[in-house]
Amino acid sequence: MYSPKMLNFYRQLLATRNASFSTMKNLSTSTENHYDIIIAGGGMVGTTLACTLGKNPKLSNNKVLLLEGSKEIKYTPSEKYSNRVVALNPSTKSLLTRIGAWKRIESVRYGPVCKLQVWDALSDSMIEFEEDDMKKEVAFIVENNLLLHAVMEETKSLPNINIINEAKVKKCNLGMNIDDLVCVELESGKSFTCDLLVSTIICV
Ligand SMILES: Cc1cc2nc3c(=O)[nH]c(=O)nc-3n(C[C@H](O)[C@H](O)[C@H](O)COP(=O)(O)OP(=O)(O)OC[C@H]3O[C@@H](n4cnc5c(N)ncnc54)[C@H](O)[C@@H]3O)c2cc1C
User: Fold this and answer.
1) 88, 129, 122, 126: which is closest to 105 by C-alpha?
2) For position 2, what pLDDT does the model report?
3) Hey, which of 39, 45, 116 would you mutate to test ligand 1's pocket, going by the most ligand atoms within 8 Å of its Cβ?
């Protein structure tokens, strides 16, 4: 599925971010514990990636594992707004629409932004973001917990994605050679191998 060149690229990408290399000689690689792709960290970014991969028909034969360190968090809409929010750009909104998560967000709430003005603290400089005389949104403010809930609910329904909560990653071994499998070790002692690791967390 992935060319050696692509694999090498991804491995180097991870290595520059935070991973360390070690040899892979003693790892068990049972099929049950082997995945095409492992995503470490089931926050907004990791879960959205899992959902996007899982919904891509070209990747439907791939087994994907999403590892999240914390317990599953139940989301209940409340009148009180959460103070953790993100400003999503229109491309991110399009992505969330394609993967089916935006309709879930829309059914609860979000705040459209038609103009942004940012001032410099030390001078009179200022930057403005606005499109078509404020006829189009430049951003969408969404609460983090609602966004995560929306993408997680969509991801849960995908047969090729396995989500494990309370799976704290302890160590990632990327291997020395292009044919080496990547190994992800959990604090529980369990380990998994994969062809491609995408980590949204610090993995050493
Ligand atoms: C204090 C603070 C305020 C912020 N305010 C804003 C803001 O106002 N607006 C804005 O747009 N952005 C803000 N950000 C940035 C925003 O939170 C991040 O960009 C965003 O959360 C990144 O998403 P993520 O999925 O990569 O990471 P996270 O949301 O951090 O997700 C990482 C996931 O990995 C899991 N994890 C961690 N370690 C392990 C492990 N060892 N094994 C398995 N899983 C693990 C965590 O439980 C978490 O679910 C803020 C960040 C912080 C810290």
Assistant:
1) 88
2) 52
3) 45
